[in-house]
Amino acid sequence: MTTLLNTIEHAFAKKVCVAHHDRSDELLEILHEIQKEEGFLSDAALRTISKSLNLSRAEVHGVVSFYHDFKREKQAENVIKICRAEACQAVGVNELIRDAESYYGVKLDNGGDTVSLESIFCLGNCALGPAVLYNNNLYGRVSLSEIQNMIKFNKEVQGQ
Ligand code: FES
Q1: For 69-112, how does the pLDDT look when each residue is reduced to its tens digit (9 = 90+)?
Q2: Are residues 82 and 148 in the same domain?
Q3: Is 92 contained in some domain?
Q4: Which is nearest to 78 in space by CA: 144, 141, 147?
Q5: How many domains does the structure of the chain reveal?
Q6: Element (H or E) spanning 139, and its range?
Q7: Given ligand 1 and candidates 80, 82, 83, which is best to mutate, with the most ligand atoms within 8 Å of its CB?
Q8: Is the dihedral of CA 143, 146, 152, 158 positive or negative?
Q9: Does residue 73 lie in a domain region?
Q10: Are 144 and 103 in contact, with CB atoms under 8 Å apart?
């Protein structure tokens, strides 16, 4: 059933699709641009993309769900991606995760408003584990105090 809500176009998504000439082969670029601007991909944005590119909603959802980096909900201000692969496990990443979960009051891979902790598997920094990715920067030999410093520094840079 079509409701009024389902017919309202997402203005920014429409603008991005038009900039890409509504080309379905540019779906990934379109999704990345919208997520970069808005932080996640809303239902309204996906509906607009589907309509603009003349793709089924299932096709668009299939691509979004295939790639772990596409988010369907608003993300925390600070997303800490923690490597959980073997080399990092060998040097204590599980303790780091436990400490961070306890300090920030969040669970790994379970969202959060200010800080969220996400699993990632091997950042290519195996000799310097535990490895963490934060704001597209790679950190090695990370402890809880270093995560706290990263977030504090980011706040200062952003003037918060
Ligand atoms: S195992 Fe953690 S960076 Fe490779």
Answers
A1: 899 988 888 999 999 999 999 999 999 999 999 999 999 998 88
A2: yes
A3: yes
A4: 147
A5: 2
A6: strand 137-139
A7: 83
A8: negative
A9: no
A10: yes
